[in-house]
Amino acid sequence: MRLGFSLPVFGKAAATPGGIARYARAAEQAGAASLWVGDRLLSPVEPEVSYPGYDTMPEEFWTAQDPFVALAVAAAVTETAILGSSTINASQYQPVNFARQLTSIDVASNGRLLPGLGIGWSPDEYAAVGIPMAERGKRLDDLLDLLDAWWTQDVVSHEGIGYTVPRTHVDLKPVRKPPVHLAGFGERAQRRVAERADGWLPVWAVPEQFPADVLTGGLAKIRAGAEKAGRDPQALSVALRVNAAPGTKPELIAESLAKIAPVLEPDHTFVDLTYLTGSVEEHLDLTGRLLELTARG
Fold this sequence. Notes:
Keywords: Oxidoreductase. This protein is α/β, with parallel strands linked by helices. It contains nine helices and 13 strands. Strands 1, 2, 3, 4, 5, 6, 9, 10, 11, 12 and 13 form an eleven-stranded parallel sheet that branches. A two-stranded antiparallel sheet has the order 7-8. Helix 1 (about 20-30) packs parallel to helix 9, helix 6 (about 185-195) crosses helix 7 and helix 8 crosses helix 9.
C-alpha cells in the first residue's frame, strides 16, 4: 500500500511557523506517497449547521491554513509525492482565480496536483463569501466547464454564473491535465462523478461507522453511470480518505486499512491526522509509525 497523509493545515500544528514545509519534506523522505489538504473557511461559535457528529465545530478547525498556500508550500519542498485535496469547497471560490491557482500549483509541482473538489455543507461559509448556497451544485458544474477550457484551450472565453471571461490568452498550462476528483455520496453527486470527474473521493472511518459495501456499492454505481454515459468506467480513479477518531491507536488504523484497501482497491489512500496530533512533531511521529505498520502488513 502506498500511503499518504494530511498536511498539518488544521489545529495547533497548523499554527507552527514553517510547519507545513517541515512536515511535507520529512514525510516524503519517510515514504509518504501523497500529501493532502482540506478546506475550512470558518469555524462559527454558533454555526447554523453544526459539524457532522458535533454540537458545534471541532476545536481543530479554529485554526485553519489556506489550502492553496499549503499545496504551494508542499510543492516547493517535495519532489515525488502526489499533492491532493480532499476536499476544497470549490463553489465558494471565484472560478477564474481558482483555475489560475490550480494551474500554478500543478506547474510548481511538476504535474503532481490531484484536485479533489466538493461543494461544502456550511451555510455560514457561503454567507461569508456572498454566494447563494442553493447555487452550489450548478456553480460546481460551471467551474468544471471553465477548468476544462482553461486547461485545454489557448484562447478561452466563458459565460459563467455571475462572471464573464472575454476571449483571453491562457498560455500557462498544467504539466498534464490534473485529474479532477469529486466528493459525495448523494445521488446527484455520484452522477456528477460518473459523468464528469476523473475520480471519486470516498471516506472511510476508524473506528468503522458503516460496512465496506457502502463504499464498494457506491463505486459500482458510479462506474455503471460512467459506462452509461459512454465513458470508460475503469478509468475512474479512487482517492480514499481515512478519518480516524480522536485517540485512535495507530495499530487499529493499520488494521482497518488492511481490511478496506483490498476490497475497494483505491488508487490513492491517505490518513487524515487532524484529530490525532497536536504538533508537527506528533504529526511526523504518527506518520512514521503508520508507514512502519502498513509496510509490515
